[in-house]
Structures are given as C-alpha cells and as structure tokens.
Amino acid sequence: MITEPAKTFTRMFRGYDPAAVDAHIEMLTTKQQLLLDDVESLRARLKESGDEAAALRKEVAVLTDTSPSPHAMQKRMAQMLRRAVDEVSEMQAEARAEAEALIAAAEAEIEAERRKHQEVLADLEARRKAMEAQYQEAKDKLEAELASMREDADRAREQLLADAKQKADHDREQAQRAVDEASGQRIRILEQLMGVYRDLEGVPAALESAYEEQQNPSEAKSENPPQEKSAGKSPQKSAEKPEEKVAAR
Q1: Pick from 142, 143, 48: nearest CA to 88
Q2: pLDDT one-digit tens code per residue, 202-248
Q3: Is residue 47 located within the same domain as residue 123?
Q4: Is 50 exceeded by the pLDDT of residue 143?
Q5: pTM (global) more than 0.85
Q6: Burial of 106 (0-12, 13-18, 19+ CB in 10 A)
Q7: Terminal-residue alpha carbon distance, the chain
Q8: Which of 104, 112, 93 is nearest to 39 (CA)?
C-alpha cells in the first residue's frame, strides 16, 4: 500500500488557496484511478489463475480417467495434481487477498481524502461566515459613527447659525444706534449753526458803522452821539448772542 504524507495548503485571506486545493484533489483523483486500474488488473490476473486452475482440474480428470499406468503412478500423479491445485488455490487466495487489501486501502484513502476535503470546505465556510459577521459588525459600527458625526455636525451648524444671527442682530442694533446718534448730533450741530447764522445777520451793518466812525469821528459824535453809543454796544450784544444760545442749547 502506498501512503502519502499529509498535504498542507497555503492559507490566504479567506482560507486555503483554492488552486492548491483543486490541484491536490485532482492528484488524488488520478491516484484513485491508478489504484482502481491496479485492482482491475489483479482481478484479471485472478480470473486468469482461476481459468488455469480449471484447466488443470480438467487435465487431472482426463489423466485420472484415461491413464493405463499402474496404481502407484496414478497415486503420484494424483498427488502432483493436488499439489498443483493447492498451489493454484493458494495463488488465487493470495491474489484475492491482495486485491481486497488494495481495494480496501484505496477506498479508505478515498474516504480519508473525502473527509479531509469536506473539513477544508467546512473550514472555508466557517471562515467565510466569520468574515461576513466581522464585516457586518464593522459596517454597523461605521454607520453608527457616521450618524453620530452627522448629528454633531448638524448641531454645530445650527449653533453657528444661531450665533451668527445673534451677532448680526447685535451689529444691526449697534449700527442703528450709531446712525441715530449721528443723525441727532448732525441735527444739533445744524441747529447751533442756524442760531449762530441768525446772530451774525447784524454784524455787517455794525462793522460798516464802525468803519465810518473811525474815518469821521468828529462828525459821528456831533451828529449822532446816542447812535454811537448804541452802535458801540450792538456788536457786543450781537457777539454775546451766539454764546448765550450755544450755552442754552
């Protein structure tokens, strides 16, 4: 009986290498066919031995029936024939035993290889299921993390929008207050300027009178002394008016 060492397969990411497994199975199938051919050859030899034994029995029967030799020769011939028949029977038994042993060994080896192949397939199936479970677990975990990240991003976006809206409202209020304050200040300045303008309306006439008095002081005193007094006082009064109005405002 021919025995083979235990075959080892290269492990890959999802189990054994399919090409190595297929090649080993093909080799075992070829070996099985060779063993079956040997068994058929032994069966053919066994049949030939049986045919030879049958032919020898026929010859013994013919010699026993037709031989004119004495009784001693018949006895020796009978012993020789029995010895030949025994040898043929022994050869047949040995050939039959050898054939049966070869058949049993081949069947046992085939069964062992079949079980080994089934174990390999079962191991591959178990690995596939384990990897599918790991993949599903990783997928579920990743989806949960993505959902959590989306929720965090949505909350952050809403918070940013709320903060931006609040800041925009605050800036708008500040700008409106600044505009209102500037408008009020402008109005106050314009009002002050308007008061100053009204107070300065009499300045040209008073200035002209002062020039005339400077050029002709004697005439101005003789002709209109009271007017000089009033004319001298009016610029002071006109000059005081803007300050009083500005202070009042």
Answers
A1: 48
A2: 777 777 777 777 777 665 555 554 444 443 444 444 434 444 443 33
A3: yes
A4: yes
A5: no
A6: buried
A7: 130
A8: 104
Summarised one tens digit per residue, pLDDT across range 11-68 is 555 556 677 777 878 888 888 888 888 888 888 888 887 787 777 777 666 555 555 5
Last residue of a domain, one of 107, 129, 151: 129
In a domain, 146, yes or no: no
Q: How many CA atoms lie within 13 A of 152 on its CB side?
A: 6
107 with 188, same domain? no
Give the Cα separation of 126 and 9 in Å (integer). 17
Residue 216, domain extent: 173-248
| Beta bridge pairs of residue 15 | 12
Residue 5 covered by a domain: no
Name the helix (H) or strand (E) containing 15.
strand 15-16
List the beta bridge partners of residue 145: none
The full length of the chain comes to: 249
